[in-house]
Each structure stands twice: as structure tokens, then as C-alpha cells.
Amino acid sequence: MKIIILDTSFLLDCIKFKIDFISEFERICNFNYKLAVIDQTLNELKDKKNSKLALKLVEKFEIIKTKKDNIVDNLILDTVDENYVVATEDQALKRRLKEKNIQTITIRQKHFLILV
After folding, report:
1. β-pair partners for 3
2. From residue 24, how far is each of 19, 20, 88, 105 by CA, in Å?
3. Domain extents for the chain?
4. Alpha carbon 77 to chain centroid distance?
5. Which CATH number among 3.30.2290.10, 3.40.50.1010, 3.10.20.30, 3.30.1490.100 corresponds to the domain 2-115?
6. Do 107 and 17 form a contact (C-beta atoms < 8 A)?
7. What is the pTM of this model?
8. Which of 32, 69, 92, 101 could lock onto 1 through a cystine, CB 3.0 to 4.6 A?
């Protein structure tokens, strides 16, 4: 089973563009998975527009506890291995994940998701 980590940028953009990412994950993922967020993502979400909805959505996801007080991108990179997929819109993070051969999920044309 793979774990899909949802980044702050991904969650907020899905809300902004009204994308049902749960249905989209079912469409694009031909593997068993569970959804998770890094604990620091919750802190990042608190001060953002649409944060109440985003926090409500992630209530049902696994929270990955981290010991470090670091930026979320670095925490994600420290956590992931081949058993993870990261859903993000952050270009720098996508580049760094590609270097580690970690799959990513991104939004395309403001309507649907792709697995890269």
C-alpha cells in the first residue's frame, strides 16, 4: 500500500478550482493507497484562505508526525521513499522529488489530476 502525502499547495488549489481530488485519486491510482499529511501542513493551513475547509478535509487523513521544526517541503523530502506519492503544486518540490524518483500527483488544466 502506498501513502499519498498531500501538500499545502495541492489542498488549497483543489479547493480553489473545486476539484474532487478523492474521486480523481480513484481514477488515476491503480494501486492501494491511503491519504496523509505532514503535521506541519496543518500549521501552514491555519493562516490561509479556505483553511477551514482544508482542515476539515484532512481530519480523516493520517497525520505523519515529525520531530523537526522545519519547512514542510523538507519534512516531506525527509519522509518519503518508494512507498510514497506526493500530491503537490510546488515546482521546486516536484523537481526535488523527481531527483529522488518519487512519483507526484499534480493538477492539470484546473480540472483533473495526473500521476507523474
Report:
1. 34, 84
2. 8, 6, 14, 10
3. 2-115
4. 12
5. 3.40.50.1010
6. yes
7. 0.91
8. 32
Q: Per residue of the chain (116 residues), give pLDDT as tens.
A: 999 999 999 999 999 999 999 999 999 999 999 999 999 888 888 877 877 888 888 888 999 998 877 888 999 999 999 999 999 999 999 999 999 999 999 999 999 999 99
Burial of 101 (0-12, 13-18, 19+ CB in 10 A): exposed
The rounded distance, in Å, linking the Cα atoms of 93 and 13 is: 16
Residues belonging to the chain: 116
